[in-house]
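Forum > Structural Biology > Help requests

Title: Can anyone predict the 3D structure of Putative MFS transporter?

Hi all, first post here. I have the sequence for Putative MFS transporter but no way to get a structure on my laptop. I'd be grateful if someone could post the structure tokens.
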Amino acid sequence: MKTGDQVVQELPWRWKTQGVIFLIGGLGFMFDAWDVTLNGFLMPLVAAEWGLSTGEAAWVSTSNLIGMALGAFLWGGIADIVGRKRAFSLTLLMFSLFSVAGALSPDFITFCAFRFLAGVGLGGCIPVDYALVGEFTPAKVRGRVLTAMDVWWPIGATLCGVVSTALLTVTFIDNWRMMLLMMVLPALLLFWIRLSVPESPMYLVRRGRGEEARKVIQQMIERTGATVGEWRLPEAQPAPRLTVSNVAKQLKGLWRFSPKITSVSWALFLTVFLLYYGALTWLPSILTEQGYGEYAAFMVTTLMTAVGIIGVLVSAWLVDLIGRKWVIGLSGPLAAVGLVLFAVQLDVPTAAKWWIGIFGFVVELTIPALYAYVSELYPTALRASGFGWASTVSRIGAGFVPLIFGSLLWPHLGLPLTFLVIGVLLGLAVLWMAVAAPETKGRELDEIGSEPPTQDAVH
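Reply #1:
Sure, ran it for you. Structure tokens for Putative MFS transporter below:
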């Protein structure tokens, strides 16, 4: 007799059932992108209002991204305690409240404190949203659905650019304060919509709430129109607790399974997002420094994020055509080259715009492929923690990118050499992937995770 979780995994995909959860979860991911992108637009405006140096302005992004790193770490464990649905809504509520507080900040230090707290809230969106969407998605389409979640990122970043650029034309308000408030309104609407999302039946079973789980599963069976025989609830298992001991065991398990795979995962996540966040965060300031007007600088940044939507769709096609490693290995270094050439040709506006557009497209070939690849490298028992820790490492690294970039690299090395240094680090991570981790295209997940990479598996 099938268990309830097997029934959920074998149901047919229906847009009115699992698709609604995918859309609502994806909108949370979209706000993550919106908020991260907004840092770049806020920095030159806040710096001008409060007379900040380049290094001081970097704290706008650093405080927010460090908050997101902490949130990504905390909310996964919180969701195991209070439930996916409740955490699903609380992340956005916390983000919205502290974003409003940030818009009302009287000074820069208070503003950075509220940006940090807003980041803690929004940082939980990715692990919580991916967990909830994954637990409702049929197994046969889960890979495509979770990969498709990434398309919400360039959509959110582009919407941020469009709204922020439009607000520059409004002269009777503090533009940066209105940019924060404009983001909060749809986020609060999404918070209200999320209240209608059912709790994950897998979570309900683990918490001993069997009748609630049975009701949710039965509703899904009816809504999808599936014919299901007799089934039973799986055995209740205690939910993991967020403790120092469990965190240590989790980390130890990842490195014990395969030091090569874990080091590849962390190195790729760290270097790819160093490159991406470095460009995304500083591009408006770079262009403004170069003599572009704020409107033109914001438009060019919006162009970079908009072409990324096409990049995500192409990446979803390429990963199954040529393999995850080839997509990451080729597109990652090419994205770095595009960014270096953009910096070299900043004095030639047409060429610079072309190169930043190429970077925006190519880097969005890399990121979705990286998400799919790392989530496939670990066995089932370690998959969520393996991906989560790689993501947390990238968030922590990205959190210090604005500060290091604005205070040390850009002022002393100049833009071309700064991007070249990051590109070299990314190239080294790609070379390590080539020799230390297997290709996952066309292989069963348990087969990939059950054995450390061999030379045959590598090639």
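The domain at 1-242 is CATH 1.20.1250.20 (Growth Hormone; Chain: A;). The chain has two domains: 1-242, 245-459.
Shout if anything looks off.
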